[in-house]
Structure of Endoribonuclease L-PSP/chorismate mutase-like domain-containing protein:
Amino acid sequence: MAGRIEAKLAELGIVLPAPAAPVANYIPFTISGSLVVVSGQIPLKEGRIAYTGKVGAGVSMEDGQAAARLCFVNLVAQVKAACGGDLDRVRRVLRLGGFIAAPPDFTQHAVVMNGASDLAVALFGDAGRHARTTIGVPSLPGDAAVEVEGMFEIG
């Protein structure tokens, strides 16, 4: 029987992908006590980067938000692996860190990152409300438009 979070994913029309394998010398997540820290996730879909380029210079705000949302979906896939397949173990989304590839004059990073934050709250309810840092960067791995990392409390 599917748990509460799996049911919410289905309601939102989200199918979690297989967790992405690391592409360098790091691991996808670490667990210390009740904390799960997930490495940055890019907007991978079916093994390919779905959103490339710079937000505000070829990538629209809407696509930037969709990229951030997809990054959060990929974070959840990693958290599911960390929880042995049981997303109902997630007690809280503690923190998200967003990296937005953008030109120097772009200032709407927070609006882009809301794509991830809004999904965190939609999926986990009040437990999805989190602390957050969002910064602009000149480039990201594979020319990804967005990357999101996260910290979760599990039980």
User: Anything to note?
Assistant: The beta strands are 29-32, 35-41, 44-45, 48-49, 54-55, 58-59, 90-101, 131-137, 146-154.
